[in-house]
């Protein structure tokens, strides 16, 4: 072998030489974390939509608490006069 320049004979861009650098995949937890950071607004919209669309499960209880609040406000206004 008279030629000692091995980079010409075996270029560094071959699959076995660059496999670890070019095809590295981060762990799944790290990829999920970065996806949440990158696309976090989608999760915020989805959570907000779920909260809005589920609504109140007990409308009678909500009505009673609103009536109670209105009575308390009316009593407080009557007491101050």
Number of helices: 5
Q: Kindly, what is the distance between the CA atoms of the first and last residues, rounded to a whole number of angstroms?
A: 110 Å
The averaged pLDDT comes out at 76
Fraction of residues in helix? over 70%
Can you give a write-up of this model?
It contains five helices and no strands. With 81 residues, it is mainly α. It has a domain of 54 residues. The longest helix has 22 residues.
Annotation keywords:
81 residues; mainly alpha; rod-shaped
List the SSEs and their pairings.
Blueprint: H1 6-9, H2 15-22, H3 28-38, H4 40-54, H5 59-80
What is shown here, in short?
This protein has 81 residues and is an all-alpha fold. It has helices at 6-9, 15-22, 28-38, 40-54, 59-80. The chain has a domain at 27-80.
């Amino acid at each position: 072998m008279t030629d000692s320049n091995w980079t010409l004979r075996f270029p560094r861009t071959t699959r076995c030489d660059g496999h670890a650098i070019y095809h590295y995949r981060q762990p799944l937890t790290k990829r999920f974390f970065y996806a949440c950071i990158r696309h976090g607004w989608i999760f915020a919209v989805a959570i907000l939509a779920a909260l809005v669309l589920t609504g109140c499960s007990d409308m009678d209880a909500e009505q009673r608490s609103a009536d109670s609040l209105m009575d308390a406000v009316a009593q407080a206004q009557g007491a101050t006069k």
